[in-house]
Design goal:
This protein folds into 2 domains: about 130 residues, Response regulator (Rossmann fold, 3-Layer(aba) Sandwich); about 90 residues, Orthogonal Bundle (Arc Repressor Mutant, subunit A), CATH 1.10.10.10. β6 and β7 form a beta hairpin. The chain is built from 8 helices and 12 strands. It starts with 8 loop residues before the first strand and ends with a strand. It has about 230 residues and is of the alpha/beta class.
Length: about 230
């Protein structure tokens, strides 16, 4: 069981009794708090207002109610809370509509208890990063610790060399502006001039450690960070 001092308050919006019961059992077994189980638009909004959950498991398709996406849109207008969608539908249009509400994750039905456990842990850890001003979000669950110069994917640290850290932090501090190669070289290697091949190797190695290409090359000029 997880540390009870890190208990998470969780609301379940689900109209399938078996699925709701399985989520409830997992939440309680992990030592978290179940604030409510509801199945309609109005009840969900009321429960959020009264119980102030930290996390919501939201079924996308609810019978006799507006969709989970509609509920999430209204909740987002009122409060900041992590929403995890539950759905049996993984078609592109459904995912695109859900993505517009900026969810913390998805669980495709049928799911198992380990998947519920994992997404609670990941979402909670991600929230710690997002709510900490020392962490810069690169996107796609990558975070850079500005205080200690460490890169994380979700809660997993990614090893960076000293020069890779300097390069990445310089781009972060540039806030999306294009940084000339000459300026980067002087910042990374203040005691000498490095060859073009050494610089390209540095960029290549850093890109290989990132699943997504956050570093954009501006031909014949420099680099910028894309969030």
């Amino acid at each position: 069981m997880e540390n009870m001092t890190e208990k998470v308050k969780i609301l379940v919006v689900e109209d399938e009794p078996i699925a709701a019961l399985d989520i409830k059992r997992t939440i309680l077994k992990l030592g978290h708090m179940l604030t409510d189980i509801v199945s309609t638009y109005d009840d969900a909004l009321k429960s959020v207002q009264e119980n102030k959950p930290d996390m919501i498991f939201m079924d996308i398709n609810l019978e006799n109610s507006r969709s989970g996406i509609d509920i999430a849109q209204e909740i987002n207008r009122r409060v900041n809370v992590n929403i995890i969608y539950l759905t049996a539908y993984s078609d592109e249009q459904t995912i695109q509509n859900a993505a517009r509400t900026n969810p913390s994750g998805y669980l495709l039905k049928p799911f198992n208890r380990e998947e519920i456990k994992s997404i609670i842990i990941i979402t909670r850890q991600k929230s710690k990063f997002i709510n900490n001003e020392n962490y810069f979000s690169l996107g796609y669950d990558y975070f850079y610790d500005l205080e200690y110069d460490n890169l994380f994917f979700k809660d997993v640290p990614i090893f960076l060399s000293l020069h890779e850290k300097i390069f990445l932090k310089f781009l972060i501090e540039a806030e999306g502006a294009i940084v000339p190669v000459a300026q980067l070289e002087a910042y990374i290697w203040p005691d000498g001039i490095m060859s073009d091949s050494a610089f390209r190797t540095l960029v290549y190695r850093l890109r290989c450690k990132l699943k997504f290409n956050f570093i954009k090359t501006i031909p014949s000029f420099g680099y910028k960070l894309i969030k």
